[in-house]
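Each lists sequence, tokenised fold; shown next:
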Amino acid sequence: MSKSISIIGGGSWGTALADLIAGNGYDVTVFAKEKEVIEGINNKNENELFLKGYKLHNRIKAENLEKVNENRISKAVWAVPTQFSRDVASMTASTLENSSVMIATKGIEISTGELIYDILSEELNSKITILSGPSFAKEVAAKKPTAVSIASNIGDERNFWQKVVSNKFFRAYTSDDVIGVEVGGAIKNIIAIATGISDGLGFGLNARAGLITRGLAEITRLGLALGAKHETFMGLSGMGDLVLTATGDLSRNRNVGLKIAEGQTLKEITENMKMVAEGVYTAKAAHFLSDRIKVEMPITKEVYKILYEDKKPYQSVMDLMSRDLKSESVK
């Protein structure tokens, strides 16, 4: 039996995972919507649009996303941005019937407040796994040491995908806490925007450490309310991913925060970005979700107000610092 994996989505992360998996001995097909991505992978072994400068394994080929239903796919990696995932899942439901799908996307749907696992569970009749953790696409493509979490409610599924992606430079740890792994991966992008704003305003390392730590409290608080396990947020998909995204120069979400601090508008920032910064959309989704289920998320609330209500970043910081005094707790 041939070893083949399909990647749904041709952005930087989907491409980096394609290269990783191909290097582990699989034939990989990337289904992308951008003509430049398809031609670059097939003709030059490079995704010049989203992962320029990294030669890809010759076991990778690319097809137009519209052709996905011409294939019978049994194993797939989902790398479609969250806000587009429901439509693409609906389109691919027939070919992914009874398949094994590993989600590599992080975020919350604005219109429903649902996590990506819930979206795909509703649209696909598939066995679903989640991959999350501190992992910049460019560093994975450069084969730098990386560790991530893989979560599923089905033991055989998480064990299968753990073996598919793991090698000498990429190490996956398994978990059965799907909700916790998802929440950590989604909300850390909001905290990274906040940290970028703080750094851009020159508030220093004390402020950065405070935002990361209290951001982790917000992530944990929301996760516990949704049924996650507390220990998950101390791991790779919680603290690990948060620290990376909030401090790393390759973080798109952190860079959004830096540009906000410079005085750029959200429209200006997003119009000049090739790839989605999920935290921009997750801030709106998480703000609505936390209000609905009555979970206190003050940093998320302020990021939402800065992005969508034109609140001045300096005022948001002052409002956070002048909140009622309380004990250090996630409750």
In short: The chain has a mean pLDDT of 96. The domain at 186-321 is CATH 1.10.1040.10 (N-(1-d-carboxylethyl)-l-norvaline Dehydrogenase; domain 2). Strands lie at 4-8, 27-32, 60-64, 75-78, 100-103, 127-132, 146-151, 170-175.
